[in-house]
Write a structure and sequence with these properties.
heterodimer, A: mainly alpha, MetI-like fold, 2 domains, 13 helices, about 0% strand, B: about 290 residues, mainly alpha
């Protein structure tokens, strides 16, 4: 009995430590965003909403532009990725074709390339096509970049769905497209959702392509916007940066809390086994 | 006959859009980079074939070797830390505790936030005069002068490593957790009946069974750390004096400066290291069986 209390106390301490380790930087961000000056740890807390006012109200800071760009680019990339990956995953798990393993391995190898070995070429092609600083310049490489992950997750989901289901549909006279869109996709909605969620997170967090292929607020995404954030005056505007970070982070935080199960499932399927 | 041929091709139609995207936006750019690395190719100057000249210049530049050395050193410190912390987290997440889902979500958050944003938070934490790190050191640590985190070689290395470990340990935790959940409960129960304690069960029973998952996590994290960019770009910009410039950052700076030939040569070098590790990964992760 005594041993059990001890171990549950230890577990509790470990759990608290883990939560603290993960969340402490965000608490610091949060506190800084409500302070007039970042030296409040020694100088005393000085509550203000001015940072939020600036970030949301001052047009020349472009916070809302960056956020909108990020949302549009990530949403389009994620939807397109899931669509293209489900087509391919369907063929790989359900249809007879040669080279399935080769496709999966090729795509896997591709996903491990360093981004820096693509950006020089992409920058030049996008410049040539006059696409620099447009959503298109980001969406196209993002889709290609996230597809491997999406394909692996979806292949693993589709493989779990009993084949009798689509055989029955074929007997009822469904075409391959109907089998995919009317039978397979509806049954694997949780898998589709996990994949879309992970694809969205990947696109939302991407940095190097966005840094290289955008030039200003018309298409710059929020990670690059915050990394290059310039205040209205000379010195680093910590309060505003942290207010912008808080506004960006809070929705992700809520999403992670709500959908952690889906995220975990997607990650596990994408990384551990097919 | 014709119909059969067509239906034989149909599966490939389903794969074609995906293949097209990957080839156009990943595969061809890689080939283009390799191609470009054989040219003297600087903005506003005439482009001319120079064969291995860029590589010659690259391999004789101490800056390149410095960045390679930093990247490898970073990997050899950060990745083991990530694996140890990640595994420890996974063990706790595997226990039957209240609010397990909430804890799992908390641990996931650092991974889900864009690294550029969390790196900005870390930049403030490491601030010399009013950052959290020096404040805590002054409060609880021995009386010592504040640490110049981002301005000294060692401080910058530690800062980058800590920020990266904080962000990626959760990823390892999630993967290892999946491995832990695959360990048969009976096995642990049997060990318990045999009066093995928690540590004995973990090191003698669980850990050996986790080996495949840990190898996958190790290779995956190594390949990913090899291309580290965002955290360093924001935190140190490679400084002080190139002490924390990763190979990605080194190459990026040449692209930014308009020297595409040389930048390409540097990224091809990184690509080759990364590609050989990927081959190892594919070989050891059981992907080959999973794929067939």
């Amino acid at each position: 009995m005594k041993e059990e209390t001890l171990s549950s106390i230890l577990t509790f301490v470990a759990a608290c430590f883990m939560a603290g380790f993960s969340l402490a930087p965000f608490l610091y961000m949060f506190a800084t965003s409500f302070n007039a000056s970042p030296d409040y740890l020694t100088g005393g807390f000085n509550f203000t909403l001015a940072n939020y006012n600036d970030v949301l109200g001052v047009k020349s800071l472009h916070f809302l532009d960056y956020l909108r760009n990020s949302l549009v680019v990530s949403f389009v990339s994620s939807v397109a990725t899931v669509l293209l990956a489900s087509l391919a995953a369907y063929a790989i798990t359900r249809l007879e074709m040669k080279g399935k393993a080769a496709i999966l391995l090729f795509v896997l190898a591709v996903s491990m390339f360093p981004q820096v070995s693509l950006i020089g070429y992409l920058f030049r092609v996008m410049t040539e096509l006059d696409l620099i600083n447009t959503y298109t310049a980001l969406v196209l490489p993002y889709i290609a970049w996230i597809l491997p992950l999406a394909l692996w997750i979806l292949v693993s989901y589709f493989a779990q769905i009993p084949k009798e289901l689509d055989r029955a549909a074929v007997i009822d006279g469904c075409t391959k497209w109907q089998v995919l869109f009317k039978v397979l996709l509806p049954v694997s909605l949780p898998g589709i959702f996990s994949t879309a969620l992970l694809s969205f997170i990947f696109a939302f967090n991407e940095f190097l392509f966005a840094l290289m292929l955008t030039t200003d607020y018309q298409s710059r995404t929020i990670p690059v916007g915050i990394a290059l954030f310039q205040g209205l005056h000379g010195e680093t505007p910590w309060g505003q940066i942290m207010a912008a970070s808080t506004l960006t982070t809070l929705p992700i935080l809520l999403f992670t809390l709500l959908f952690q199960r889906h995220i975990v499932q997607g990650l596990t399927r994408g990384a551990v086994k097919g | 006959m014709r119909k059969r041929l067509l239906s034989g091709l149909e599966p490939y139609l389903f794969v074609a859009p995906l293949a097209l995207f990957v080839v156009l936006f990943v595969f061809i750019p890689i080939l283009g980079t390799v191609w470009s690395s054989f040219y003297s190719d600087v903005t506003f100057l005439e482009r001319r074939f120079s064969f291995l000249q860029n590589y010659g210049a690259l391999f004789s530049d101490p800056g390149f070797w410095k960045s390679l050395r930093f990247t490898l050193l970073f990997i050899s410190v950060a990745v083991p830390l990530e694996l140890i912390i990640g595994t420890a987290f996974a063990v706790v997440l595997d226990l039957e505790i209240p609010l397990r889902g909430l804890l799992r979500a908390c641990v996931l958050i650092p991974w889900a936030i864009p690294s550029a944003i969390s790196a900005r938070i870390w930049e403030l934490i490491y601030n010399y005069s009013f950052g959290l790190a020096n404040f805590l050191l002054a409060k609880i640590g021995p009386a010592s002068p504040p640490v110049n985190w981002l301005g000294t070689d060692f401080g910058a290395f530690a800062a980058v490593t800590a920020a990266d470990v904080w962000k990626t340990a959760p990823f390892v935790a999630i993967i290892v957790l999946a491995g832990l959940q695959a360990v048969p409960r009976d096995l642990k129960l049997q060990a318990k009946i045999d009066r093995a304690n928690f540590a004995q069960i973990f090191f003698k029973v669980t850990l050996p069974l986790l080996k495949p998952v840990l190898v996958v996590a190790l290779l995956f994290r190594t390949i990913d750390s090899l291309r580290i960019f965002d955290v360093i770009y924001v935190l140190t910009h490679g400084g002080p004096g190139g002490a924390t410039a990763s190979v990605s950052l080194y190459a990026y700076k040449y692209f930014l400066g308009g020297d595409f030939g040389y930048g390409s040569a540097a990224s091809v070098a990184l690509f080759l290291v990364s590609f050989s590790l990927s081959c190892l990964y594919v070989k050891y992760s059981g992907f080959t069986e999973a794929a067939s």
